[in-house]
What we know:
- By secondary structure, this protein is an alpha+beta fold.
- Among the domains are: 2-95 and 157-197, no CATH class; 244-426 and 472-477, no CATH class; 482-535.
- 63% of the residues lie in helices and 7% in strands.
- It contains 21 helices and eleven strands.
- It has helices at 2-31, 45-62, 64-73, 82-88, 100-110, 114-117, 153-171, 177-198, 200-213, 248-253, 258-276, 309-324, 327-337, 346-361, 370-383, 390-409, 415-425, 428-466, 482-510, 513-535, 548-560, and strands at 120-121, 127-128, 132-139, 142-149, 220-221, 234-238, 243-244, 278-280, 288-290, 296-298, 304-306.
- The strands form three sheets. Strands 1, 2, 3, 4 and 6 form a five-stranded antiparallel β-sheet that branches. A four-stranded mixed β-sheet has the order 5-10-9-7, covered by helices on one side.
- The radius of gyration is 30 Å and the shape is globular.
- The model is unreliable at 362-368 and 538-549 (pLDDT under 50).
Amino acid sequence: MVALVSLRAYWRFVVVAYRFLPLIVAYLRDRRRFLIFGRSRQVSREMQRDRAAVLLDTLLTLGPTFIKLGQLLSTRPDILPKAYIEVLSSLQDDVPPASWDESKLVIEEELGDVNEVYDDFDTEPISGASLGQVYLAEYDDQQVAVKIRRPGIESLVEADLKVLRWSIPVLVRFIGEGRAFSLDSLADEFAKTIRQEMDYSRERDILEEIRGNFADNNAIDIPEPIDPVCSPRVLTMEYIPGTKINDIETLDKKGLDRTELATTLQEVYLQMIIEDGVFHADPHPGNLAVKDDGTIIFYDFGMSSTVDPFIQEKIVEFYIAVANQDIDAILDTLIDMGTLSPTADREVMGDVLELAIADARGENIEQYRVNQIIEQVESTIYEFPLRLPRNLALVLRVATVVEGVCVTLDEDFDFIAVATDYLSAEGYREETIKRLARDTGEQVQETAEALFTVPPKLDRVLDTVERDDLTVNVQIDDENHVLDKLAKRISYSIMVAVGLLSASIIYSFTGQWRISVAILALTLPMVFFLYRSFKQPTGLRAKPQFTRQSMRQQRQRDEER
Length: 561
């Protein structure tokens, strides 16, 4: 089995390399126009969109594993530019269904004969995805949905995971240090994610846990798993029909309050993320439906995640800071969560957030949406490439998708107002204020203590200086390797000078021109390297990434498109 997976991986590596070759060549030409020489070229936003479309088509062609990879990449603005994120966000599990004979074989291997296990079974799938497909059946006089893992998907996924692992060392050579770190962690992260999604026993456990968390909430409905007919490759659950949540016409015909639906959906996800710490991570309209009485149905818990208490606390602080329009608090929260570099220009970043909030308000000054704020933050993350924690990346993605669904239901839906009311009703806002006040008091106390401890220490330092016993250790942060380049220049210069001087002296005093020519020949490579070092920029240059004018110009270009 292992040998078969390895052989399949070698072949898949060739196929993947061939499919990605046009994108690789395009990227290399961005660095050097003629691959091995020439200047770099500027990549426009339109070019990024075109390449993103090619990438999307490539992922769809390569099959289930790469479709899932594209879905994961759509949540990682620390790896891909915004244009790619926008295109990949539309990626769906659009793959042809497996034959019934193959699916039947999976059921028989896991549970036994289909006709004996189920009272009735419809062999036409009602939904298909990259890793599994869903059928309708009857079990114990109850209509159920049966989710079956695709036959043979395990070996294909394992082979593709090997290909991804082999590809990472090559890819990191062509990208920046920050994104290289993110990309290097992506393979392990993706392997864990896709293996979890293929394990239907885990999905069953998630279903049970989230159902328990909302047991007293009659506003939502989550299918109950049927344990006797569940296994790692087969998940049987009750079938709950409903109207797709974005079918506005049908919802209106049934007289349902769409604003109330949007509010319920938002509050449910706030509870999942902030209070429970486990959440449904794929809230697109295909996984959300509405019953005739207005109850929201949640489907497909294969993509789910958890949030640790620290991130939960910071998300609460983020919402409260946005509601209060406290730019400094927003920046502090982003830094604490690791989504923004502590060395980032706070003034520039403050301008970004102010403009994001101002743009999101629209005509109604009191209304602004977190989705637009997140988009601005995501673009900032890409400009300052950082590793974005997976659970936080999914939280950002979920917030964006949920806000889109809510706005579809009610175009005037106030995302932040609902979040603020929820936090206040649950006591989070008051508790956060108390905690921040407590932390501020502790900082004041520490500062007061320092006022009494620093002077004696300073006096001891001055005594040391007076005795000439002071030793200072200095660590220079040289991210651009400027000092290393200067050292190489000095070395090349010395070797060139020594070579020229030696050749001149030998020829002048001995007349041995052959030896002089040989020394000059050995010196020529040093001359070339010295010249090349001056052609490469070495200085530390900084320019503002975001200005009001540039963002205004970008907005105008987007409107023109």
